[in-house]
Every structure is written in structure tokens, then in C-alpha cells.
Amino acid sequence: MSGPVEVRQVSEYVWEIPKTGPMLVPGRIYADRAIMDQLLAEQPKAEWNALLQVRNVACLPGICRFSLAMADIHPGYGFPIGGVGAFDAGEGIVTVAGVGFDCNCGVRAMRTGLSRREVEARKAELAEALFRGVPAGLGSEGDIRLNRREVEDLLRTGARFVLRRGLGIEEDLEYIEENGCIAGAEPANVSEKAKQRQFRQVGTLGSGNHYIEVQYVDEIHDGEAARAYGLALDAVLVAVHTGSRALGHQIGTDYLPKLKRASERYRLPVRERELVGAPIGSPEGREYISAMCCGINCAFANRQAIGHLARRCVSGVFGIPPESVRLLYDVGHNTAKFERHRVDGAERLLLVHRKGATRAFGPGSPDIPAAYRDVGQPVLVGGTMGTCSYILRGTPAGMEETFGSAVHGAGRLKSRTQALREYRGERVVAELRARGILVRSHSLRGTAEEAPGAYKDVTAVVDVMEGAGVSRKVARLRPMICVKG
Description:
The strands form four sheets. Strands 7, 8, 9, 11, 15, 16, 18 and 19 form an eight-stranded mixed β-sheet that branches. The two termini are 41 Å apart. The chain is globular. A hairpin with a 2-residue loop joins β1 and β2. The chain is of the alpha+beta class. The longest helix is centred in the middle third of the chain and has 36 residues, at 283-318. 57% of the residues are buried. The chain is built from 15 helices and 19 strands.
């Protein structure tokens, strides 16, 4: 199957790639006209494009209903970023491409109990405290030193491992997806090299698009949900965006060749190098899933540790108890998880791959905190350090249409290579400072790669998802401080 991908519009914010040739289901993309025009314009320029990837995923065995792409769609490895694929647990496959190399990269948002005015008065001091207090940057190492046995304990128990070491409060676990620990992790299926890379990386931010951001609420869109989430105008939050660091990357690296061999053994279609996989119930499939669950738990533990380090920074600067900085929610966006969803009127067990897409369960779900059950799960959407971010909530329509999934961020508009040609880190920092946003970065090159202009308009992205009914805006957040790896 070659040639440009045909797309047809089925509603204002929904587009479909018709089921043709080896496709087992149609493709479905959430986009407005501008986003779709950009995707279509990219097709002739490169073989590696997001629409082609949506079509390729639609050819994978056991996929249910649609190969989905959220409004922050852009090309990834095999799966598009913003891609969602749900596979029948008995007939489907698991693929590294549907998870990615930064397993369970995600966002944690914490309420500080402080107002914008209070933080503005000591903004530079807080920026310095966070910059010094949380290890960050490429290959960064922290003060938490683990041996092999302790790493394996962390991979089994996730955030609770860090909590037992005094980093956090018991209440935190209630407000983490999966309560901070997913079942099915088997450290024996994680390589020694991956474990060794984690000996000193717990509690470290990393580099790339990872960040700590101090934000304030500048607009409330949904008063009921905002009250449930404890949000008010000018309230200050601290957001952490990071994942499983080198361990998660090594798991992906280790299993890519293993699943390539499995694809050949089980005669699975491979339409892009990273789009290899194995039947979910096969020995290779079960092994990768158990290792991937270790990566998920590693990321939960890492954000738990960083979250508490950030708590201490806020506490030290403002003289408030660390426990007064409360966790709003922590959710991942690079995972494959077993979930039950209704498909064609019947409930089925599915392995839902979310690649740069966030779980977004609707009201009434028993899998979200009791305090949020009436309004739906918080969805934490990162924008850019120069624009804004959003907190959304899941909806019943999203449960029906996207297997309870939504966008995870703005989505890249320009590649990192292109961003480096167009932006300079020093200028980005200076321009944001002139607008009252303090950026502390461990790499000016990384700052250029993450320049606000390298990303789509996050407001347009979340507006698409709201217009389609998949998620609802709760609050808009503006940046005050951004610490980059």
C-alpha cells in the first residue's frame, strides 16, 4: 500500500482515513482545518509522516474500531505521537512503537496553596531553589543511590518505594494513576544494563522536553471541576514532566530486536522499522509487557521523588510545611495498559497503547480518585514555556470514542533540527524573561530545541478535543518559572 494517504472529513473536528487494502480498521484523526492542512502538506515532503503512521497502525492484528490520533499528532517512531491503538487481549499484539522509548513519560501537578502575588515576590529565589534542588540535564544523577536489589524493588513497587524512603506523603498514592504502581512488572525481564543505568537516576529530571514549571491559574473554564480539583484563579501549581529516564529507554532498545524476531516468527506485518511486535499472549509479548510495566513503575517512582524535592524547595523558600504542597494528579502518556472498554456493545479486555496520549477517564470511573469521580479524571496537558498549559477532564464521549484517551501536549510543529536552525537558547531565555517568565536551563541547546515556536498552538489543540466532546477544559495555566534539563 503506497501513495498519499486519503483523508475525508466526517465532522468539524473528526477526519477519517478510509479502510482500504490491508487496513483492518479505519484511521481517525481529531483535528481542525489548520492542523489537517499541516499534516497533508507534510506528506509529499517525507516518507516519514504522521498520516502514513496512522494508516500503518490500522493494519496491525487485533486492533479495535480505529487507529486513533489526537489533535497533537506528529510523526513518531512507528506510531504517531498522539496515537492510540486498542488491541484485543486475545487476538492483538503489543508493540514497542505504541509505547515509545520514554516509557510512562508523564506529568505531575501539585497545588502549592500560594497565590500568584506571593510567588512573584520571590520568583527568582524559587527558580534558583528548583534549579539547584532537582538534578537535571543529560545523564544527570541524583542523591538516591540504589543497588541491584533495590532497583528491582523499585520496579515492582513504583512510587511506594520512594515513599518508604521518606519522599512524599501517603496521600500522594491516591492521586497517581494506578496508585503509583501497575501490576505485572517482572524485573527479571529487564536487562542488567537497564538496571545499572537506574542506580543513580531516581529523582532526576533528565533533558529534552522534560521540565519543572511553576504556573498560575489565569482562567477557569469549568467551575464544578475546578472546585473538585482544588483550583482557583491565581492559584500557583508546580508541574513536573519526565519519565523513566535511561532505564525506560534501555527497555525499548533491548526489546526492539526481540520483537523484530517475534514479528518474523509470527508473520506479522511490519510497515516501519519500529512497528514490530508480538502477540499479546505469546512468550515474547508477555515478556515485553512485564518489562514495560517495570518502566511504568520506574517513572511513577521518579516523579514521586522529584515531586517531593520540589515540595522541599517551595517549603524552604516560603516557610510553609512540605505537606501543604498537595498532589493534584500524576498521569502518564507513553504506556500500554490492560483496560476494559465497550466495543460494538460488548465489554472487552484490551491492551490500550497510548503514545504521547493521556488516559482521560470520564465521570464515574472507579479507576480515578473518589474526590474526582463526579467530574472525571484530570488530564494534564503541557503547552510551552512561553504560552500556557491546560487542565482538562475526561468525558463519557471520550470513553466511547477514544478508549478514554486525550491529548498530552501541544505537539511539535518543527523538528528539533529545524528548531536549532531557527532559534538560539540565549535569545529564547531573554525574550521570555522580558515577558516575566524565568527560564533556568542546564542546556541552552535544549532550550532552543524546546522554543515555544517549535510547537503547535496548545489552545487550538485542546479546543479541537473539546469541540469533539472527547475532553473538556477546566483551567488554563500560565508559566512563571521553567526549569529545563
